[in-house]
Amino acid sequence: MAGRQWDPEQYNRFAAEREQPFWDLASLLDPVPAPRVADLGCGDGRLTSALHHRIGARMTTGVDLSEEMLAAAGPHAEPDVRFIRADIAAWTGPAVDVVMSNAALQWVPDHRAVLERWRQGLAAGGQLAVQVPANADHPSHRVARELADEWLGPDAPPDPVAVNVLRPVDYAELLDSLGFVRQHVRLQVYVHRLRHPAEVVEWTKGTSLTRLRGALGPERHARFVDEYRRRLIEVLGERAPYLYTFQRILLWGRLP
Ligand SMILES: C[S@@+](CC[C@H](N)C(=O)[O-])C[C@H]1O[C@@H](n2cnc3c(N)ncnc32)[C@H](O)[C@@H]1O
């Protein structure tokens, strides 16, 4: 996480596409009256606030480490929607009825230990809903990894999706071992119709490639992105439109 800079504007270039998994995840929640909610890795807070109102939450806390994201979240704060700066890897409460985390857990290692901590922050009957990308095999991620290894060698920051994300069956077993008596775990393929393979670069620039900005510095990072674009188009071909397939794992569990 150190040295990574988030750009809310770049992240939101594909806001509609990124939003769909959030609401698919939210639809897994059992309706409960006036829940207390923690949104871990809340980003710019727009979806945090929308969820708060949609499910009639009593109190919602968005948690993020990025100053840029928290600055963008500021306008979404209300008396019962607040945003705090903290590391989601260490979050254990105060107790809530719903832990929601969309596209953030992949950034931290040791999901077994982290989900055990998140479980400690759930009240009786509490629900955990988490979505993580599982697209490490796609050329969009593979080419970036290969190039990062060439440019940075052993100093290349690892691709978090490749090193941190478990298999769907691992999450199912983990939820069970943590005492979630009901659960739903699935792998879902989202399809994004992009105008051209080059648009994939605009996508990854807002997420996965942010890990390389600190290690490369701004000027080298810009050259890296140009080379990444060239290689990716070579691999994917000049296809217009381009169907970007994106695998994601959605998991939900409920405590007794
Ligand atoms: C891809 S964004 C997702 C934002 C939001 N959940 C959404 O769906 O729009 C990932 C967010 O996780 C945050 N994040 C990553 N690692 C974190 C950590 N260890 N602690 C807190 N936030 C973290 C980033 O700052 C970023 O805002």
Q: What does this entry look like structurally?
A:
With 256 residues, this protein is of the alpha/beta class. It has one domain: Rossmann fold (3-Layer(aba) Sandwich), CATH 3.40.50. Helices cover 41% and strands 24% of the residues. It contains eleven helices and seven strands. It has a seven-stranded mixed sheet. β1, α3 and β2 form a beta-alpha-beta unit. α9 packs across α11 and α10 packs across α11. The structure holds S-adenosylmethionine.
Summarize the structure in short:
The chain is of the alpha/beta class. It contains 11 helices and 7 strands.
Key terms for this structure?
single chain; 256 residues; alpha/beta; Rossmann fold; seven-stranded mixed β-sheet; globular; binds S-adenosylmethionine
Just give the CATH class.
Alpha Beta
CATH superfamily: Vaccinia Virus protein VP39
- What would you call the structural class? alpha/beta
End-to-end distance: 34 Å
| Rg calc | 18 Å
* CATH architecture grouping: 3-Layer(aba) Sandwich
State the CATH topology: Rossmann fold
- Name the shape in a single word: globular
Number of domains: 1
What is the count of helical runs? 11
Listed once per kind, the bound small molecules are:
S-adenosylmethionine
**Residue-averaged pLDDT, rounded?**
94
Give me the oligomer status. single chain
Strand order of the largest sheet: 3-2-1-4-5-7-6
Beta-strand residue fraction: 15-25%
Low-confidence stretches: none
- Sequence of secondary-structure elements: HHEHEHEEHEHHHEHHHE
| Estimated helix fraction | 40-55%
